[in-house]
Design brief:
heterodimer, A: about 110 residues, alpha+beta, B: about 1000 residues, Alpha-Beta Plaits, six-stranded antiparallel β-sheet, extended, protein biosynthesis (chain A), Spt4_sf (chain A), elongation factor (chain A)
Chain lengths: ~110, ~1000
């Protein structure tokens, strides 16, 4: 369990080893962040090595309040982070906006 | 195999090829002839792809499928996959067997992979035919030629279509790419739900916090995740929903589950977790559990101070210069620790061994760098910018990127020295401006931890706005809240603002002081020092400390106005809670003292010899904790004095200091006076110089410690002086000897135990412990509630000790009698055994006797005395009645019709005197009896006669009269009387 190389996706919060992000992308966000089509910088930019609070999410995520609260209830099972330090770079955010994807920073700066 | 069939296949395969656009384009240009080659090339490229990565390949593959077979059956997919893996081998075979293919074709036909091979076969046949030059065409026949042309045409058409399809595929690709691993998170289309609407309700699953070994939380979450995933497809999956952990809640993991049983199952067999120790988290605390911000977090913005937590600069203060775009890297400005390789050593092989020493922080020095390690220095982008060993230096400071994880934003507490280094650049720049807000941010947590003041600002503080539109505005604080301060403007560039209220962030305010203000420092190393402001220098203030007499530079916001130099309110802080004002402390082996002043770093102690000593806390050996029992002394009269007693200094010199004793050390008294101002009113005196004014709570002096009066030789003075004899007679009570009650058989006459009999096992001044006959129990009873059984008859205790002479071995010896009287007296007054009784007298005065409460016993005693002494006296008969065992002496008194009683009761009038006079004969004789023992001193009587009468008559003067007497004679107790 090499937490050193693990990173959390800044969009969905999924925690994976860096290599996996590079190789396979993010199972939730691949369609919008395209980790695979871009070079490794995309992974660097859109994932964060600094996160806190581990959440293990199973299959029955729809029933979970925790998942709903963290807005990970529609994502694949996995380990997610509660708080992720860092924000997506602006160009990615505008990209996401074009794709109608709502980005909510997970570093605690989101207000609602 | 029918040709039409083959045709379709070809088309399909083409489609496949087109999935790789580049290839299909080539194919188009190359035409039929090179088709085989193309295939090969394609296969090669695919092979290369395969070499790359399986996953990637598969993904591409999937996309291809979608592009081409959007409408096809799903079933085909498998076939396609197969095909994908085969081609390399297959194509090779084709190439090798190009001309032997007919035979191979048969083989192919016979194989099971029908579709594929048919297609391949068809292709090959074509290639074979085309390879075989035109001459062969005749052999094939006209029909075949026609067909071929048709097919060529078809293909062309197809290819054109394919071209469109290519574009189509491209667009499809774009489109499907989204839908295929479609993002399932929040989209603008689906609408975002405010987190408020997600607030937990009672219907949501419960969250349990489970204790675990601290540090294993993350492991446990991962393990539980694995466990859940593993069991997800089994017969009975785990019914827990989520497991999570927060760094701020150490030693807990949290499991969300509908039923508690699910948790038990999930945790069965897990280590490092205490499944039994779980708590149900209240629903309304859910959101707090998953809050993304810790309230204590400090937002990183350029300009704030941080500390580096790792590497060479570990622990060093740094200033945030900039943040990377994603907020993960922080560009910090710090003071480099460089030695330019000066301290490096060279190993035997000529290799450079880096010095292990950590260089001191110093600004980058270009000359030194060039001198010692020139090859690594190069000029940077600006005039004062350098790059040294790939790190950037500007104006001597190092600018370096640090990972967010490696910096510490909380509890930074920058020290003034460090800040000085930053601002002054080691003395080069001289004038630096400190950014208070940055420091404030770094101090934020400290304040919160302390739970103390939310801001250093207090109402009425004079403040200045430091920045923003209102900069330079001066105002007075009205109220403060957590981060904001409301001020009323008193001075502003724009007169319209004056007297308006403004709300300003704390960070933007600076306190304003003027030279000469007396202030106290609230933060930092110099906290709690006080001093005089001598210079104001922007945000910092220079003051002269009252304590150290040195200049101190502090931030203005760390100051508050103070009027007093001593900081009694913060004494605990000052001394670390060790000492308090008025504590008795050991200064050295032979000296003790009482703390009279506490200041930061320095105490003033009043030593036992009356000197005032300034001493550092470290110079104090320790606090003297004496118990009450140890703190006992006698005054000049021999009375016991203890802490709390009020004493009066009776010395020459005209001033008689008076106060309550706060400490007694040997025979030094530390007395606190309310009249003296200096040294908190505390003065030192010798116990032999004071006389008791009042004692604090009589019980204390009685029950604790030995009765020093009894041992006091002063009180046993040989009767050289008039009434002294009487006094000593009265006082010399049972000095030495055992309590007479001991081992007597007694019966309790009053109280809860009334009627019970027992033996006295132990006795002190007031109480006796009685071993009961009835039950094996010892009870404590006041002595005056006892009757002693003498020859079968109960004799009241007071009588027993007073008049119970008959039973005594000495018999009713006259000489002994007065001695007996003494203790009885004591008993009467209910206070001390001897002339402690006199104090009772003092308290009650004549009225006590008149009232008859104290008098009851008193009279009996008196009666006892008198009766014992002179049976013939008239008064004595009444008193004498007292002698008779059953009769209450007091009652006798009360009953006595003689003017004596009335006199006493009235306590006024001339008749009083006469009565006394009347009594005086008797009384006088009685007293005389006492005196008669002393024979020589009749003056005592006369004194009584004179002063006594008048004194008693007036009621007050009487005392003075007594006082007079005392003055004359050696009546120690009388002086007390006198004062009364």
């Amino acid at each position: 369990m090499s937490s050193r190389t693990e990173r959390a996706c800044m969009l969905c919060g999924l925690i994976q080893p860096y290599k996996k992000f590079v190789d396979a992308g993010c199972p939730n966000c691949e369609s919008v962040l395209h980790f695979q089509d871009n070079d490794d910088n995309q992974v660097q930019d859109c994932t964060s090595p600094s996160f806190e609070g581990l959440v293990a999410l199973g299959n029955d995520n729809k029933k979970s309040w925790v998942a709903r609260w963290l807005r990970i209830d529609s994502f694949v099972p996995g380990i997610y982070a509660v708080k992720i330090n860092g924000k997506l770079p602006p160009h990615v955010i505008s990209d996401l906006t074009e794709q109608n994807v709502a980005y909510r920073p997970r570093d605690g700066s989101a207000e609602d | 195999m029918s040709e039409s069939n083959a045709d379709i296949k070809v088309q399909e395969s083409d489609g496949n090829v087109e999935s790789n656009p580049a290839l299909s384009v080539k194919e188009e240009t190359a035409g039929d002839d090179q088709r085989g080659e193309k295939r090969t090339r394609e296969s090669e490229s695919q092979g290369a792809n395969e070499g790359n990565d399986n996953d990637k390949d598969n993904d591409n593959e999937n996309e291809n499928e979608n592009d081409n077979e959007g409408e096809d059956d799903e079933d085909d997919e498998d076939d396609e996959d197969d095909e994908e893996e085969e081609p390399l081998a297959k194509k090779r075979r084709r190439r090798a067997n190009q001309f032997i293919d007919i035979e191979a074709e048969v083989d192919d036909e016979e194989e099971d992979e029908l579709d594929e091979d048919d297609e391949e076969a068809e292709l090959l046949r074509e290639q074979f035919i085309s390879d075989g030059v035109d001459g062969h065409e005749a052999g094939v026949g006209a029909e075949a030629t026609d067909d071929r042309l048709h097919r060529q045409f078809d293909r062309r058409r197809q290819e054109e279509e394919d071209q469109d399809a290519e574009k189509l595929a491209e667009t499809l690709k774009q489109r499907y790419r989204k839908t295929h691993t479609v993002y399932r998170g929040d989209t603008n289309a689906s609408g975002t739900v405010s987190q408020k609407l997600l607030m937990p309700s009672i219907n949501d699953p419960a969250i349990y916090g489970i204790r675990c070994i601290p540090g294993r939380e993350k492991d446990l979450v991962r393990k539980l995740y694995e466990k859940k995933r593993t069991l997800a497809r089994s017969q009975n999956p785990l019914e827990i929903l989520t497991v999570f952990q927060r760094d701020s809640f150490k030693g807990y993991i949290y499991i969300e589950a509908k039923k508690p049983e699910a948790i038990e199952r999930a945790l069965a067999g897990m280590v490092n977790v205490y499944a039994k120790q779980r708590i149900l988290v209240p629903v309304r605390e859910y959101p707090d559990l998953l809050k993304q911000i810790k309230s204590s977090d400090v937002e990183i913005v350029p300009g704030i101070y941080i500390r580096i937590t790792r590497g060479k600069y570990k622990g060093d203060l740094a200033m945030v210069d900039n943040l990377s775009e994603n907020g993960l890297d922080v560009r910090c400005k710090l003071i480099p620790r460089l030695d330019y390789g000066k301290n490096d050593e060279f190993g035997p092989d000529g290799r450079r061994i880096k010095s292990k020493l950590r260089p001191l922080p110093r600004l980058f020095n270009e000359q030194e760098a060039r001198m010692y390690d020139g090859e690594h220095v190069s000029a940077g982008r600006g005039p004062r910018s350098f790059v040294y060993r790939n790190e950037e230096y500007y104006e001597g400071f190092l600018f370096k990127d640090f990972k967010l994880n490696f910096i510490q934003t909380k509890d930074v507490h920058p020290k003034l020295e460090e800040l000085d280094r930053f601002t002054n650049g080691g003395g080069e720049d001289g004038e630096g401006d400190l950014d208070l807000s940055a420091i404030a941010a770094s101090l934020k947590n400290k304040k919160e931890n302390d739970g103390g003041e939310s801001s250093a600002f207090q109402p009425d503080d004079k403040v200045e706005i430091r920045r923003g539109e209102q900069a330079k505005t001066i105002g007075k604080v009205i109220s403060t809240s957590l981060n904001e301060v409301t001020i009323v403007v008193t001075d502003s560039g724009d007169s319209q603002f004056v007297n308006q209220k403004l709300t300003v962030p704390v960070n933007d305010l600076r306190k304003v002081f003027t030279a000469g203000d007396h202030v106290r420092i609230t933060e930092g190393k110099h906290a709690d020092e006080t001093g005089l402001v001598i210079k104001i220098d922007g945000d910092s203030v220079v003051l002269l400390s009252d304590q150290t007499k040195e200049d101190v530079r502090v931030f203005a916001n760390y100051l508050i106005k103070a009027t007093d130099a001593s900081t009694t309110g913060h004494a605990v802080d000052v001394t670390g809670g060790k000492f308090e004002l008025k504590d008795l402390v050991q200064i050295n082996a032979s000296n003790v003292g009482c703390i009279v002043k506490l200041e930061k770093g320095i105490f003033e102690v009043l030593s036992q010899d009356g000197r005032l000593i300034s001493i550092r806390p470290s110079g104090i050996v320790g606090k003297l904790e004496l118990s009450k029992r140890e703190q006992i002394a006698t005054d000049k009269n021999g009375s016991t004095i203890s802490v709390g007693d009020t004493v009066k200094e009776a010395l020459g010199g005209g001033k008689n200091r008076e106060g309550a004793i706060i400490h007694i050390y040997k025979n030094y008294l530390f007395v606190k006076s309310n009249e003296i101002v200096e040294n908190l009113g505390i003065f030192v005196t010798n116990s032999q110089n004071v006389s008791t004014v009042t004692t604090k709570g009589s019980i204390v002096s009685k029950t604790l410690g030995p009765d020093l009066n009894r041992m006091n030789p002063n009180l046993k003075l040989p009767p050289g002086l008039g009434a002294g004899a009487a006094a000593s007679a009265g006082l010399r009570t049972r000095a030495g000897g055992r309590d007479k009650l001991l081992n007597q058989s007694v019966v309790v006459t009053r109280g809860n135990y009334k009627g019970l009999m027992g033996n006295v096992a132990d006795a002190d001044d007031v109480d006796a412990r009685i071993e009961l006959h009835t039950m094996s129990k010892k009870i404590k009873v006041r002595k005056d509630m006892l009757s002693v059984i003498v020859r079968g008859e109960p004799v009241p205790y007071l009588r027993f000790i007073g008049g119970g002479r008959s039973s005594g071995p000495g018999g009713p010896g006259a000489g002994n009698m007065p001695n007996r009287a003494g203790p009885s007296f004591g008993g009467i007054s209910g206070s001390g055994s001897s002339w402690g009784g006199s104090s009772a007298w003092n308290r009650g005065g004549a009225s006590t006797i008149g009232a008859g409460n104290g008098g009851a016993g008193g009279s009996s005693t008196w009666g006892g005395n008198n009766g014992g002494m002179t049976p013939a006296a008239g008064g004595a008969s009444a008193w004498g009645g007292g002698k008779t065992p059953g009769v209450g002496a007091g009652s006798t008194w009360g009953k006595t019709p003689g003017g004596g009683a009335s006199t006493w009761g009235a306590g006024s009038g001339a008749g009083n005197n006469s009565t006394w006079g009347g009594n005086r004969n008797a009384g006088g004789s009685a007293w005389g009896g006492n005196n008669s023992n002393n024979e020589a001193d009749n003056g005592g009587n006369s004194a009584w006669g004179n002063g006594g009468n008048s004194a008693w008559g007036s009621g007050n003067g009487g005392n003075s009269a007594w006082g007079k007497n005392s003055g004359k004679s050696n009546w120690g107790g009388n002086s007390a009387w006198g004062s009364k």
